[in-house]
Amino acid sequence: MTAIRKVIIVGGSLAGASAAFAIRKTGFDGSVTLIGEERHLPYERPPLSKDYLRGEVGAEKAHVRPEADYQANDIGLLRGRRALSIDPVHRTVALDDERRLAYDRLILTTGSTRRRLPVPKAALPGVLYLRTLDDADAIRSEAEGAAQIVVIGGGWIGSEVAASLRQMGRDVTMVMELSTPLQNVLGPEVGAVYADLHRAHGVELVNGRAAGLLGDQRVRGVQLEDGRTLRADLVVAGVGAVPRAGLGLRAGLALDNGAIAVDERLRTSDPAILAAGDVAAALHPRYGRLRVEHWHNAREQGATAGRNAVGAEEVYGRTPYFYSDQFDLGMEYRGLAMAWDEVVIRGDVASREFIAFWLSGGRVMAAMNANIWDAGKSLATIVEAGASIPADRLADVSVPFADLAA
Fold first, then answer.
1. What is the separation of C-alpha 195 from the centre of its chain, rounded to a whole number of angstroms?
2. CATH code reported for the domain at 127-237
Protein backbone atom coordinates (compact mmCIF):
# COMPACT_ATOMS: atom_id res chain seq x y z
CA MET A 1 0.00 0.00 0.00
CA THR A 2 2.91 2.36 0.65
CA ALA A 3 3.69 2.51 -3.09
CA ILE A 4 0.16 3.67 -3.88
CA ARG A 5 -0.20 7.39 -3.18
CA LYS A 6 -2.44 8.72 -5.95
CA VAL A 7 -5.81 7.26 -6.94
CA ILE A 8 -7.87 8.77 -9.74
CA ILE A 9 -11.47 7.78 -10.40
CA VAL A 10 -12.89 8.71 -13.80
CA GLY A 11 -16.68 8.85 -13.73
CA GLY A 12 -18.69 11.00 -11.32
CA SER A 13 -21.27 8.25 -10.85
CA LEU A 14 -22.64 6.22 -7.96
CA ALA A 15 -19.91 3.66 -8.61
CA GLY A 16 -17.25 6.38 -8.66
CA ALA A 17 -18.43 8.06 -5.46
CA SER A 18 -18.79 4.67 -3.74
CA ALA A 19 -15.19 3.86 -4.71
CA ALA A 20 -13.90 7.17 -3.35
CA PHE A 21 -15.56 6.85 0.06
CA ALA A 22 -14.64 3.17 0.34
CA ILE A 23 -10.97 4.09 -0.23
CA ARG A 24 -11.06 6.62 2.58
CA LYS A 25 -12.78 4.12 4.88
CA THR A 26 -9.74 1.82 4.57
CA GLY A 27 -7.57 4.51 6.14
CA PHE A 28 -5.74 5.34 2.92
CA ASP A 29 -4.18 8.80 3.35
CA GLY A 30 -2.93 9.45 -0.19
CA SER A 31 -4.75 11.61 -2.73
CA VAL A 32 -8.15 10.58 -4.10
CA THR A 33 -9.53 12.49 -7.08
CA LEU A 34 -12.97 11.93 -8.61
CA ILE A 35 -13.51 13.32 -12.12
CA GLY A 36 -17.04 13.77 -13.49
CA GLU A 37 -18.32 15.28 -16.73
CA GLU A 38 -21.53 16.61 -15.19
CA ARG A 39 -21.56 19.66 -12.96
CA HIS A 40 -23.93 17.96 -10.54
CA LEU A 41 -22.72 16.14 -7.47
CA PRO A 42 -22.54 12.37 -8.09
CA TYR A 43 -26.09 11.02 -7.90
CA GLU A 44 -28.09 7.81 -7.94
CA ARG A 45 -30.24 7.11 -10.97
CA PRO A 46 -33.34 5.30 -9.60
CA PRO A 47 -35.12 8.54 -8.52
CA LEU A 48 -34.77 9.92 -12.06
CA SER A 49 -37.56 7.69 -13.38
CA LYS A 50 -39.64 7.87 -10.21
CA ASP A 51 -40.22 10.58 -7.60
CA TYR A 52 -37.64 13.04 -8.96
CA LEU A 53 -39.15 12.83 -12.44
CA ARG A 54 -42.60 13.46 -10.94
CA GLY A 55 -41.29 16.54 -9.11
CA GLU A 56 -42.01 15.09 -5.67
CA VAL A 57 -38.44 15.42 -4.37
CA GLY A 58 -35.47 17.62 -5.11
CA ALA A 59 -32.12 16.65 -6.60
CA GLU A 60 -30.57 16.34 -3.15
CA LYS A 61 -32.46 13.08 -2.62
CA ALA A 62 -30.54 11.57 -5.54
CA HIS A 63 -27.11 12.76 -4.36
CA VAL A 64 -24.83 9.95 -3.22
CA ARG A 65 -23.42 12.17 -0.47
CA PRO A 66 -23.66 15.90 0.29
CA GLU A 67 -20.81 18.11 -0.92
CA ALA A 68 -19.51 18.60 2.62
CA ASP A 69 -18.74 14.87 2.88
CA TYR A 70 -16.31 15.05 -0.04
CA GLN A 71 -14.51 17.91 1.67
CA ALA A 72 -14.51 16.17 5.04
CA ASN A 73 -12.98 13.05 3.47
CA ASP A 74 -10.43 15.00 1.42
CA ILE A 75 -11.81 13.72 -1.88
CA GLY A 76 -10.89 15.98 -4.76
CA LEU A 77 -14.07 16.45 -6.77
CA LEU A 78 -13.54 17.76 -10.31
CA ARG A 79 -16.98 18.50 -11.73
CA GLY A 80 -17.65 19.47 -15.33
CA ARG A 81 -14.34 17.98 -16.46
CA ARG A 82 -13.89 15.30 -19.10
CA ALA A 83 -11.06 12.78 -19.27
CA LEU A 84 -9.82 12.67 -22.87
CA SER A 85 -7.24 9.90 -22.74
CA ILE A 86 -5.22 7.59 -20.53
CA ASP A 87 -1.48 7.01 -20.86
CA PRO A 88 -1.01 3.60 -19.19
CA VAL A 89 2.77 3.68 -19.68
CA HIS A 90 3.34 6.93 -17.78
CA ARG A 91 0.14 6.46 -15.73
CA THR A 92 -1.47 9.79 -16.48
CA VAL A 93 -4.95 10.99 -17.41
CA ALA A 94 -5.36 13.92 -19.82
CA LEU A 95 -8.30 16.26 -19.11
CA ASP A 96 -10.19 18.62 -21.38
CA ASP A 97 -8.66 21.63 -19.59
CA GLU A 98 -5.17 20.53 -20.74
CA ARG A 99 -4.18 19.21 -17.34
CA ARG A 100 -2.48 15.85 -17.09
CA LEU A 101 -2.94 14.07 -13.75
CA ALA A 102 -0.68 11.27 -12.54
CA TYR A 103 -2.02 8.15 -10.87
CA ASP A 104 -0.75 5.03 -9.17
CA ARG A 105 -4.15 3.39 -9.46
CA LEU A 106 -6.97 4.36 -11.80
CA ILE A 107 -10.62 3.31 -11.49
CA LEU A 108 -12.97 3.67 -14.46
CA THR A 109 -16.62 4.19 -13.50
CA THR A 110 -17.78 5.92 -16.67
CA GLY A 111 -21.11 4.07 -16.77
CA SER A 112 -23.17 3.75 -19.91
CA THR A 113 -24.90 6.05 -22.35
CA ARG A 114 -28.35 5.92 -23.91
CA ARG A 115 -28.89 3.92 -27.03
CA ARG A 116 -30.35 6.15 -29.73
CA LEU A 117 -33.63 5.30 -31.37
CA PRO A 118 -32.57 3.87 -34.77
CA VAL A 119 -35.37 5.34 -36.89
CA PRO A 120 -35.78 8.30 -39.27
CA LYS A 121 -36.36 11.71 -37.66
CA ALA A 122 -35.17 10.52 -34.26
CA ALA A 123 -33.35 13.84 -33.81
CA LEU A 124 -36.57 15.92 -33.91
CA PRO A 125 -37.24 18.23 -30.98
CA GLY A 126 -39.57 16.53 -28.55
CA VAL A 127 -37.71 13.20 -28.68
CA LEU A 128 -36.07 12.63 -25.32
CA TYR A 129 -34.18 9.94 -23.42
CA LEU A 130 -33.66 9.39 -19.70
CA ARG A 131 -30.11 8.91 -18.52
CA THR A 132 -29.13 11.98 -16.53
CA LEU A 133 -30.56 14.43 -14.03
CA ASP A 134 -30.84 17.00 -16.81
CA ASP A 135 -32.73 14.47 -18.94
CA ALA A 136 -35.28 14.02 -16.15
CA ASP A 137 -35.68 17.80 -15.88
CA ALA A 138 -36.25 18.05 -19.62
CA ILE A 139 -38.86 15.27 -19.67
CA ARG A 140 -40.76 16.80 -16.73
CA SER A 141 -40.74 20.21 -18.39
CA GLU A 142 -41.81 18.93 -21.81
CA ALA A 143 -44.52 16.73 -20.30
CA GLU A 144 -46.29 19.74 -18.81
CA GLY A 145 -47.44 20.88 -22.25
CA ALA A 146 -47.85 17.48 -23.92
CA ALA A 147 -51.39 16.24 -24.50
CA GLN A 148 -50.21 12.82 -25.67
CA ILE A 149 -46.93 11.12 -24.76
CA VAL A 150 -45.55 7.97 -26.38
CA VAL A 151 -42.93 5.95 -24.52
CA ILE A 152 -40.99 3.62 -26.80
CA GLY A 153 -39.63 0.58 -24.99
CA GLY A 154 -41.15 -1.80 -22.46
CA GLY A 155 -38.06 -2.42 -20.36
CA TRP A 156 -37.29 -1.01 -16.91
CA ILE A 157 -36.74 2.59 -18.01
CA GLY A 158 -39.70 2.61 -20.38
CA SER A 159 -42.15 1.08 -17.92
CA GLU A 160 -41.04 3.23 -14.97
CA VAL A 161 -41.15 6.44 -17.02
CA ALA A 162 -44.58 5.53 -18.41
CA ALA A 163 -45.83 4.93 -14.86
CA SER A 164 -44.46 8.24 -13.57
CA LEU A 165 -45.83 10.26 -16.50
CA ARG A 166 -49.24 8.69 -15.99
CA GLN A 167 -49.07 9.53 -12.27
CA MET A 168 -48.40 13.11 -13.36
CA GLY A 169 -51.76 13.05 -15.15
CA ARG A 170 -50.47 12.72 -18.70
CA ASP A 171 -52.04 10.55 -21.41
CA VAL A 172 -49.41 7.88 -22.07
CA THR A 173 -49.01 5.16 -24.68
CA MET A 174 -46.22 2.62 -24.26
CA VAL A 175 -44.96 0.87 -27.39
CA MET A 176 -43.43 -2.58 -26.81
CA GLU A 177 -41.97 -5.08 -29.24
CA LEU A 178 -42.99 -8.00 -27.01
CA SER A 179 -46.47 -8.82 -25.77
CA THR A 180 -45.96 -7.55 -22.20
CA PRO A 181 -43.70 -5.08 -20.40
CA LEU A 182 -40.45 -6.56 -19.05
CA GLN A 183 -41.09 -9.85 -20.82
CA ASN A 184 -37.46 -10.33 -21.83
CA VAL A 185 -36.40 -10.25 -18.15
CA LEU A 186 -39.40 -11.62 -16.24
CA GLY A 187 -41.16 -13.76 -18.84
CA PRO A 188 -44.78 -13.54 -20.00
CA GLU A 189 -46.35 -14.72 -16.73
CA VAL A 190 -44.94 -11.93 -14.57
CA GLY A 191 -44.87 -9.51 -17.50
CA ALA A 192 -48.66 -9.90 -17.68
CA VAL A 193 -48.89 -8.58 -14.11
CA TYR A 194 -47.19 -5.38 -15.25
CA ALA A 195 -49.38 -5.17 -18.34
CA ASP A 196 -52.50 -5.36 -16.16
CA LEU A 197 -50.99 -2.85 -13.74
CA HIS A 198 -50.36 -0.26 -16.45
CA ARG A 199 -53.73 -0.75 -18.11
CA ALA A 200 -55.50 -0.44 -14.74
CA HIS A 201 -53.87 2.97 -14.29
CA GLY A 202 -54.74 4.21 -17.77
CA VAL A 203 -51.59 3.56 -19.78
CA GLU A 204 -52.36 2.37 -23.31
CA LEU A 205 -50.14 -0.55 -24.32
CA VAL A 206 -49.34 -1.07 -27.98
CA ASN A 207 -47.43 -4.04 -29.36
CA GLY A 208 -45.25 -3.09 -32.28
CA ARG A 209 -41.94 -1.71 -33.46
CA ALA A 210 -41.30 1.95 -34.23
CA ALA A 211 -40.33 2.44 -37.86
CA GLY A 212 -40.03 6.22 -37.87
CA LEU A 213 -41.16 9.45 -36.30
CA LEU A 214 -43.51 12.02 -37.79
CA GLY A 215 -43.23 15.80 -37.84
CA ASP A 216 -41.17 18.59 -39.35
CA GLN A 217 -40.20 21.19 -36.77
CA ARG A 218 -41.13 18.93 -33.85
CA VAL A 219 -42.22 15.34 -33.31
CA ARG A 220 -45.92 14.84 -33.94
CA GLY A 221 -46.29 11.09 -34.04
CA VAL A 222 -44.79 7.61 -34.21
CA GLN A 223 -45.02 5.40 -37.28
CA LEU A 224 -45.10 1.67 -36.53
CA GLU A 225 -43.79 -1.02 -38.87
CA ASP A 226 -47.30 -2.36 -39.48
CA GLY A 227 -48.45 1.04 -40.77
CA ARG A 228 -50.24 2.27 -37.67
CA THR A 229 -49.53 5.81 -36.49
CA LEU A 230 -49.69 7.12 -32.95
CA ARG A 231 -50.08 10.79 -32.13
CA ALA A 232 -47.29 12.14 -29.93
CA ASP A 233 -46.50 15.61 -28.63
CA LEU A 234 -43.58 14.08 -26.75
CA VAL A 235 -41.67 10.84 -27.30
CA VAL A 236 -39.51 9.28 -24.59
CA ALA A 237 -37.33 6.43 -25.84
CA GLY A 238 -36.05 3.77 -23.49
CA VAL A 239 -34.34 1.38 -25.89
CA GLY A 240 -31.29 0.35 -23.91
CA ALA A 241 -27.83 1.62 -23.05
CA VAL A 242 -24.27 0.96 -24.18
CA PRO A 243 -21.13 1.00 -22.00
CA ARG A 244 -18.97 4.11 -22.14
CA ALA A 245 -15.80 2.15 -22.73
CA GLY A 246 -14.06 4.51 -25.15
CA LEU A 247 -11.35 5.60 -22.69
CA GLY A 248 -10.47 2.00 -21.97
CA LEU A 249 -10.52 1.03 -25.62
CA ARG A 250 -8.15 3.85 -26.58
CA ALA A 251 -5.84 2.90 -23.71
CA GLY A 252 -5.60 -0.66 -25.05
CA LEU A 253 -7.65 -2.34 -22.31
CA ALA A 254 -9.31 -5.64 -23.12
CA LEU A 255 -13.04 -5.41 -23.85
CA ASP A 256 -15.85 -7.93 -23.70
CA ASN A 257 -18.96 -7.28 -25.79
CA GLY A 258 -18.28 -3.54 -25.74
CA ALA A 259 -17.59 -3.29 -21.99
CA ILE A 260 -14.27 -3.19 -20.15
CA ALA A 261 -13.33 -6.73 -19.16
CA VAL A 262 -12.28 -7.11 -15.52
CA ASP A 263 -11.36 -10.12 -13.42
CA GLU A 264 -13.11 -11.26 -10.25
CA ARG A 265 -11.24 -8.51 -8.33
CA LEU A 266 -12.32 -5.87 -10.86
CA ARG A 267 -8.87 -5.40 -12.36
CA THR A 268 -8.58 -4.75 -16.08
CA SER A 269 -5.93 -6.16 -18.39
CA ASP A 270 -3.70 -3.40 -16.99
CA PRO A 271 -3.10 -4.23 -13.29
CA ALA A 272 -2.97 -0.53 -12.36
CA ILE A 273 -6.47 0.11 -13.74
CA LEU A 274 -9.76 -1.17 -12.32
CA ALA A 275 -13.32 -0.72 -13.55
CA ALA A 276 -16.73 -0.96 -11.90
CA GLY A 277 -20.41 -0.36 -12.54
CA ASP A 278 -22.18 -0.26 -15.90
CA VAL A 279 -18.93 -0.04 -17.87
CA ALA A 280 -17.46 -3.24 -16.42
CA ALA A 281 -17.95 -6.83 -17.57
CA ALA A 282 -16.77 -8.67 -14.47
CA LEU A 283 -15.79 -12.29 -14.02
CA HIS A 284 -18.37 -13.43 -11.46
CA PRO A 285 -17.52 -16.62 -9.52
CA ARG A 286 -21.02 -18.02 -10.09
CA TYR A 287 -22.31 -16.49 -13.32
CA GLY A 288 -19.15 -16.10 -15.37
CA ARG A 289 -18.61 -12.88 -17.33
CA LEU A 290 -21.39 -10.50 -16.30
CA ARG A 291 -22.32 -6.86 -16.78
CA VAL A 292 -25.09 -5.54 -14.54
CA GLU A 293 -26.79 -2.17 -15.01
CA HIS A 294 -28.35 -1.36 -11.67
CA TRP A 295 -28.01 0.80 -8.59
CA HIS A 296 -27.02 -2.02 -6.22
CA ASN A 297 -24.25 -3.30 -8.49
CA ALA A 298 -22.85 0.20 -9.05
CA ARG A 299 -22.76 0.91 -5.33
CA GLU A 300 -21.29 -2.38 -4.16
CA GLN A 301 -18.94 -2.99 -7.09
CA GLY A 302 -17.65 0.57 -6.88
CA ALA A 303 -16.84 0.12 -3.20
CA THR A 304 -15.03 -3.17 -3.87
CA ALA A 305 -12.98 -1.58 -6.66
CA GLY A 306 -12.03 1.25 -4.33
CA ARG A 307 -10.77 -1.08 -1.61
CA ASN A 308 -8.93 -3.26 -4.12
CA ALA A 309 -7.26 -0.21 -5.65
CA VAL A 310 -5.46 0.47 -2.38
CA GLY A 311 -4.39 -3.03 -1.50
CA ALA A 312 -7.37 -5.28 -0.77
CA GLU A 313 -7.90 -8.54 -2.64
CA GLU A 314 -11.69 -8.88 -2.51
CA VAL A 315 -13.51 -11.11 -4.98
CA TYR A 316 -16.72 -9.47 -6.16
CA GLY A 317 -19.30 -12.23 -5.98
CA ARG A 318 -22.49 -10.49 -4.89
CA THR A 319 -25.74 -11.95 -6.17
CA PRO A 320 -27.36 -9.60 -8.70
CA TYR A 321 -30.18 -7.56 -7.17
CA PHE A 322 -32.50 -4.91 -8.49
CA TYR A 323 -35.79 -3.28 -7.59
CA SER A 324 -38.55 -1.33 -9.25
CA ASP A 325 -41.51 0.77 -8.11
CA GLN A 326 -44.36 1.32 -10.55
CA PHE A 327 -47.69 2.73 -9.37
CA ASP A 328 -48.60 0.67 -6.28
CA LEU A 329 -46.37 -2.30 -7.13
CA GLY A 330 -42.93 -2.48 -5.56
CA MET A 331 -40.65 -5.42 -6.18
CA GLU A 332 -37.18 -6.80 -5.49
CA TYR A 333 -35.46 -9.34 -7.75
CA ARG A 334 -32.51 -11.48 -6.69
CA GLY A 335 -30.40 -13.78 -8.81
CA LEU A 336 -30.13 -14.09 -12.57
CA ALA A 337 -32.34 -16.20 -14.79
CA MET A 338 -31.23 -15.84 -18.41
CA ALA A 339 -33.16 -18.99 -19.32
CA TRP A 340 -35.62 -21.04 -17.32
CA ASP A 341 -37.94 -24.04 -17.57
CA GLU A 342 -40.68 -22.90 -15.21
CA VAL A 343 -41.99 -19.89 -13.32
CA VAL A 344 -43.62 -20.70 -9.99
CA ILE A 345 -45.97 -18.19 -8.38
CA ARG A 346 -46.60 -18.14 -4.64
CA GLY A 347 -49.34 -15.84 -3.37
CA ASP A 348 -52.07 -13.74 -4.94
CA VAL A 349 -51.25 -12.24 -8.33
CA ALA A 350 -54.62 -10.49 -8.48
CA SER A 351 -53.84 -8.46 -5.36
CA ARG A 352 -50.23 -7.97 -6.54
CA GLU A 353 -48.80 -9.58 -3.42
CA PHE A 354 -46.80 -12.59 -4.49
CA ILE A 355 -43.42 -14.28 -4.87
CA ALA A 356 -42.15 -15.54 -8.23
CA PHE A 357 -39.43 -18.16 -8.65
CA TRP A 358 -37.58 -18.89 -11.90
CA LEU A 359 -36.41 -22.51 -12.12
CA SER A 360 -33.97 -24.21 -14.45
CA GLY A 361 -33.46 -27.94 -14.14
CA GLY A 362 -35.37 -27.81 -10.87
CA ARG A 363 -33.02 -25.26 -9.31
CA VAL A 364 -34.10 -21.79 -8.25
CA MET A 365 -32.15 -19.33 -10.41
CA ALA A 366 -33.94 -16.13 -9.37
CA ALA A 367 -36.73 -14.95 -7.11
CA MET A 368 -38.84 -11.81 -6.94
CA ASN A 369 -40.94 -10.50 -4.07
CA ALA A 370 -43.80 -8.21 -5.11
CA ASN A 371 -45.29 -6.08 -2.31
CA ILE A 372 -44.08 -8.64 0.23
CA TRP A 373 -41.23 -7.15 2.22
CA ASP A 374 -40.35 -9.78 4.82
CA ALA A 375 -39.13 -12.40 2.37
CA GLY A 376 -35.94 -10.84 1.05
CA LYS A 377 -33.40 -12.55 3.29
CA SER A 378 -34.92 -16.01 2.80
CA LEU A 379 -35.14 -15.53 -0.96
CA ALA A 380 -31.49 -14.50 -1.09
CA THR A 381 -30.54 -17.68 0.77
CA ILE A 382 -32.55 -19.85 -1.62
CA VAL A 383 -31.13 -18.22 -4.75
CA GLU A 384 -27.53 -18.17 -3.57
CA ALA A 385 -27.74 -21.85 -2.66
CA GLY A 386 -29.07 -22.75 -6.10
CA ALA A 387 -31.58 -24.82 -4.17
CA SER A 388 -33.63 -27.60 -5.73
CA ILE A 389 -37.10 -27.24 -4.25
CA PRO A 390 -40.23 -28.92 -5.69
CA ALA A 391 -42.49 -26.44 -7.46
CA ASP A 392 -45.53 -27.39 -5.38
CA ARG A 393 -43.60 -26.68 -2.18
CA LEU A 394 -42.43 -23.29 -3.47
CA ALA A 395 -46.01 -22.38 -4.32
CA ASP A 396 -47.48 -23.56 -1.00
CA VAL A 397 -48.10 -20.46 1.13
CA SER A 398 -48.46 -22.65 4.21
CA VAL A 399 -44.75 -23.52 4.06
CA PRO A 400 -42.79 -20.80 5.93
CA PHE A 401 -40.03 -19.01 4.03
CA ALA A 402 -37.53 -20.12 6.65
CA ASP A 403 -38.35 -23.76 5.92
CA LEU A 404 -37.90 -23.19 2.19
CA ALA A 405 -34.54 -21.56 2.81
CA ALA A 406 -33.46 -24.41 5.04
1. 21
2. 3.50.50.60
